[in-house]
Design brief:
The protein has a 5-stranded antiparallel sheet with strand order 7-6-5-2-8, with no helix packed on it. It has a 4-stranded mixed sheet with strand order 11-10-1-15, with no helix packed on it. It has a 3-stranded antiparallel sheet with strand order 12-9-16, with no helix packed on it. It has one domain. Strand 6 and strand 7 form a beta hairpin. The chain contains 12 helices and 16 strands. By secondary structure, the chain is of the alpha+beta class. About 25% of the residues lie in helices and about 20% in strands.
C-alpha cells in the first residue's frame, strides 16, 4: 500500500512539473534601443505602408515546393547535432581576438577598454580546449551569442558616425529557444559554452542551454514541427516568466492525447546537472503558432510582415531586437525557407542573376522578368 501511495505521489508531482506551461501574446520589454532618436522620411507618408498592398503581386507558390524547401530547412536546422567536430577554420573563429587587439575598443560611454581587461576575456575563451567537449546541446531560452565570453560590450570609436551604441562588436547574433547546438568547449570560468548552431557560432551562457542525449533527440526530432507566427510572445510556467518567444521559433508538435482538443508544443528545459528535458506548452491560444510551413499566400506574407511593425533595428539581435539579416531570416522561416545569418551570406543563398553590364534601358525589364516579388528580397546584397 505504501509503495502504491509513493508511486501515485511521484506521478502527481511529475504531472505538476509538466503542467501549466503557457504561451501568451505580449510585448518586447522597452530598452535603450527604443529611446534612440528616430528620423522621419517622406516615404512613410507617400508610399503605402501596408504589406498587403505589395503582397497581392505574389504569384501562387506550390505547396509541394514549400515542403521541399522545408525539408532542406529542417536538415540544416538540425545539422549541429550530426557534427563530430567544429566545422570552422581556426582563423575564422579567432577573429574576435584580432578585433580587440588591432585597434582601440571602447565602452558605450566612450572610455577606452584596457588590454588587461580584453586579455582576460581572451584567456577566458580557453581556446586551448577547443573541440574537447564534443557535446550536443540546445537553447532553453532566447539567448545572445557573444564573440567573447563576457556580458560586457565593446565598441569602436563612438565619436564616429555609425559606431557606438547599439553597434556592440561583442554581439554576434541571438538564438531562439529550441535551437540545436554543437558544443565545442567551455570557458575557464565555466559560465559560457562555445557553440555552433545552424546559422552562427560563438559564446552563450551555460544557464541558457542544456546538453542533450540520443533519447532527447529522438523525441525532439519527431518530423512534426510548428513555428511561432507572432512576435514577442512570452512563455510562462504558471506565473513564472521563462523566455521571450520570437517569431521564427520552432516547436515540435506534441503527440495528442485522447481528450486533447488542440495541439501542444514541446520545448527544451534545463534540468538537473545541465541536462535537457522536454516540457510541453499546452496552453496556447490559436493564431500564435502554426504548423510549418505555412502556405506562401498574399494573405500570409502580409500577415507575417505586419508582425515587425514598429520594431526598432538592433545590431546582432541585441536586446531582443533584429538587424537586417535576422529580420529577413525570421520573415521567411514560417514559409520553410532557410537563410543563413548575415546579409553577405544570404546574398549567396539564392539563384543569382548578374545584370552588370546590361544597358540601363534593359535592366528594368531584366529585373521585372527575373525577380519574384517577396522572394528576391532575401538575396539582395546590403
Amino acid at each position: 500500500m505504501k509503495k502504491k501511495l509513493l508511486f501515485v505521489t511521484l506521478f502527481a508531482a511529475q504531472s505538476l512539473l509538466q503542467a501549466d506551461y503557457t504561451l501568451v501574446n505580449a510585448h518586447r520589454h522597452s530598452s535603450r534601443i527604443d529611446h534612440m532618436p528616430k528620423g522621419k522620411i517622406a516615404d512613410m507618408w507617400q508610399i503605402p505602408q501596408d504589406p498587403a498592398f505589395y503582397a497581392k503581386q505574389l504569384k501562387p507558390v506550390s505547396y509541394s515546393k514549400q515542403l521541399k524547401w522545408d525539408k532542406e530547412y529542417n536538415e540544416k536546422y538540425f545539422r549541429p547535432w550530426s557534427l563530430n567536430q567544429i566545422d570552422l577554420p581556426l582563423k575564422e573563429m579567432k577573429w574576435p581576438f584580432r578585433s580587440v587587439r588591432k585597434k582601440k575598443i571602447y565602452t558605450s560611454k566612450g572610455r577606452v577598454i584596457s588590454s588587461s581587461i580584453y586579455e582576460q576575456w581572451i584567456a577566458n575563451a580557453n581556446f586551448g580546449k577547443l573541440d574537447t567537449a564534443h557535446q550536443r546541446g540546445i537553447t532553453t531560452r532566447h539567448v545572445n551569442v557573444r564573440a567573447l565570453p563576457t556580458i560586457y560590450s565593446f565598441y569602436h570609436n563612438p565619436k564616429k558616425v555609425g559606431e557606438g551604441f547599439p553597434f556592440d562588436y561583442n554581439q554576434n547574433t541571438s538564438y531562439h529557444l529550441n535551437t540545436p547546438l554543437y558544443i565545442s568547449h567551455y570557458s575557464l570560468d565555466g559560465k559560457w559554452a562555445y557553440v555552433r548552431g545552424s546559422a552562427a557560432y560563438g559564446w552563450i551562457k551555460t544557464s541558457g542551454m542544456a546538453v542533450v542525449d540520443d533519447a532527447f533527440i529522438k523525441r525532439f526530432k519527431n518530423n512534426h514541427y510548428a513555428i511561432a507566427i507572432r512576435d514577442n510572445l512570452k512563455l510562462y510556467h504558471q506565473k513564472k516568466y521563462l523566455s521571450p518567444i520570437k517569431l521564427g521559433t520552432i516547436f515540435p508538435i506534441a503527440k495528442r492525447q485522447k481528450d486533447q482538443k488542440s495541439d501542444a508544443y514541446l520545448f527544451a528545459f534545463r534540468g538537473k546537472n545541465g541536462k535537457a528535458v522536454l516540457r510541453t506548452a499546452d496552453k496556447v491560444k490559436p493564431g500564435l503558432i502554426a504548423k510549418k510551413p505555412i502556405p506562401m499566400t498574399p494573405k500570409n506574407t502580409a500577415m507575417i510582415a505586419k508582425q515587425f511593425y514598429n520594431e526598432p533595428y538592433g545590431w546582432g539581435g541585441l536586446l531582443e531586437t533584429r538587424d537586417c539579416s535576422s529580420f529577413t531570416k525570421d520573415y521567411f522561416a514560417p514559409f520553410g525557407i532557410f537563410l543563413r545569418r548575415n546579409s553577405s551570406k544570404q546574398a549567396r543563398d539564392g539563384d543569382y542573376s548578374n545584370i552588370r553590364g546590361i544597358p540601363k534601358n534593359k535592366k528594368k525589364q531584366a529585373i521585372i522578368s527575373t525577380a519574384k516579388p517577396f522572394r528576391s528580397m532575401p538575396y539582395v546584397r546590403s
